[in-house]
Amino acid sequence: MNAAEVCNTNCNKVKVSNSGDSNSISEADVDVVQSPNDKRKYKVVVLDNGLRVLLISDLNSDPESSSECEKPCQDEQKNEDISESETDETADDVSDMEQDAIPSDGGKQECVEDGEKLAAAALCVGVGSFSDPPDIPGLAHFLEHMVFMGSEKYPDENAFDSFVRKHGGNNNACTDCERTTFCFDIERKHLKDALDIFAQFFISPLLKENSVDREINAVDSEFDMSKTSNSVIKQQLFGSLGKKGIPMGKFMWGNIESLKETPSTKGIDLYENLQIFHRHYYSAHFMTLCVQAKVMNFTLAAPLDLMQSWVTEIFSDIPNNKTTQPSFYHVSDSFNTPDFTKLYQVVPVKNTNQLSLTWHMPCLRHLYRCKPLHYVGWLCGHEGSGSILSYLKKKSWALTVVAGNAESGWEHNSTGALFEVNITLTDEGLRNYEEVIKVVFEYLTLLREVGASVQIYNQIKLVEDNDFRWKEKVDPWDYAEHLAEAMQLYEPVDYLRGSTVLYDWTDECKFSIESVIHKLLPSNCNIMVLSPSFEAQADREEYWYKTKYLVKEVPQSLRDPTAFRPRRQLHLPPPNDFIASDFSLKDPNTLYTKEPKLILNTSRSKLWYKQDRKFKVPKVCVYFHILSPVVSTSAKSQALLDLFLDILSHNLVEVAYNAYVAQLEYEFKATNEGIIIKLRGFSHKLHKLMEIIMDRIDEFDVSDQDFHTLNEQLKKNYYNSFIKPEKLARDVRLMLLENKSWTKVHKRAFLANLRKVDLMNFVSEFKRMSHIEGYVHGNYTVEEALNMESCVRNRLRNDALPQAMLPVERVTQLPVDDSVVRVKSFHEGTRTRLS
Ligand SMILES: [Zn+2]
């Protein structure tokens, strides 16, 4: 099928009330657009109290699949390796304005038997930290903590938590600028009971006064953890540069000082204010609820009708105080201040050099159908030829460029939208940061001159359409949470796709994109440069996080908009030939078995294969584990392996970026036995990506400059990892348990004296002395799977290794007695972690 013919929509008629007023329910037909690949049923209802509800029935109609894994192509765990997260502030451990976003015990069960699949629910209150009273910063976050402390009907403050945990689930909440979201998941047969306990938190919560001190401490502890996040300290400083009293200038986390000490010296009753805030803002008509479940039809009612009757029975008593929902649309030009357009040199909490260019503009939510910020961010963050990053990398000035607006509550709210260009600088890039800024300004000049391009827009739209058309299921918790929040932002028709959809190109699109581009001028840009090297000169300190910084006037050479003629290396990206256009499913083959089948077994490689018959999507998932005895001999060889993968990733960025844009993903992971190469995405063009990766491995090389830069970066990454007590504790635990594992402290020691020749020798030994184990799963024929294997083997040119030389994973059996290992933390002021 031609890509242009892909049907993108699957309309689902639902009834929705237009009014939250309990006395005048009017209903209208609304088409909630869903992906044709999405077999779930949706229903939107509005209860008499104004609560907007999205119900999702997740009945799986494919009986053959009943014991298969929910997500064949999803990673089974997050790669904890440092290479992917430590250098990128967007992947910071503490997400921007969210708190408590990660359940304390980590991941939830994903690969479960059919009968145990989890149901999930999320309730989003359309009020957040922007509504904190000026003299009690952090009150919304604090209330979020207090809500789950028992209700009149279920007074035991642990009732909910213990109920969901007992039944395989979890619960959590997060506070954002204008939203507060509460979520849980649970085995589906206990959903109704859990919903009842959950709803009571919003009907008659106890907000127990004797829990106040303990929860203030919990908030303070989270504040303490947030101190290790560069993005958090940067946001707080950024907020202080706007007009006095703006919502984005607030201290939203809260701590003991803001919630207890200062209010008590001012004679403010925290508890009374907590109750007032709750009564005023926790009203049903500000709330959205999303419930996803696989409700079996034990009655005559359809599952969605049954769920509707539950929700109506359980949630109708949430009070509606009929007040007007707080909105901050009237707050305009928050950052139209002289302070904003200065140059800030900031001391980060992590050892990283970063440049942040930020523009502030009015809220653009009403333009979500053509997403002008997404268009401009897509181009500025592009990594292919002609891009900002491509140029900066050739100069060895930058490692990453992340651009655009992440649509978080901080970056896009009713007071405005941010457009950010965040660049991770090398040491050389730091020395030349003014030149780096010029490159960005020149690229923006280029965009202004070219104007909005329909070809670029349609390329982005095609990628988004393909993604939506073949959307895979995500974890029910994540889905419910995302949708409860989306319901606060989009029309019902776009609940499911509002965050990603691009409507057809129109003149209005062109106008809105161009008007954004014309706002991104040097003269209204905020510039922050983060580097530990500013420590000695930093003469100012931000109040809450004690972030040290200094302020300078921006040099005139960076202010003149006519000065930035685009250099010839900068240009718009060429057409992307990785974008899939063949979505046909392979004919079922006779080799099909329920379990993966070993289809190749030689002295150089093994290949397992399984054709997909459950999901029926034109995607494939490929894993190759390249095992070698040379990687586990010492901490040095493991450091070399990390460096090899970092350089390989660096070498691939530009050439593989188009694949990434076309949703063909790749990932490398160092293990104690070798490396894992994972690829996943549309089957049509995935082999092209594998060929590129393997060519780069085959012809592996690195310039002296890149070797030096990436070696230095790896040292920083190791350091940034082991200063975190939880990561250090994990490393030490693994070192004690696994006989061939070393901490990053040990690995870092070898990087200081490393020479390029050491790395090149290591890589050629690794390739020669290796054994390949592969698994191909999805929409591939046997021949295509075998082609993947030969692509790997032909480029690796590995010897046949005797079985005895293959690395084996061993774990130490610990003595029966309790043993405690105490390790001194590298970072003063962080709290103890257990592992
Ligand atoms: Zn919290």
From TrEMBL:
Record carries keyword Repeat: no
Composition bias, Acidic residues: 82-99
Descriptive protein name: NRD1
Region of interest (Disordered), residue spans: 61-111
Domain Peptidase M16 middle/third intervals: 468-747
Domain Peptidase M16 N-terminal: 116-230
Keyword field: Hydrolase, Metal-binding, Metalloprotease, Protease, Zinc
Organism of derivation: Bugula neritina (Brown bryozoan)
Keyword RNA-binding attached: no
Compositionally biased tracts (Basic and acidic residues): 68-81
Species classification: Eukaryota, Metazoa, Spiralia, Lophotrochozoa, Bryozoa
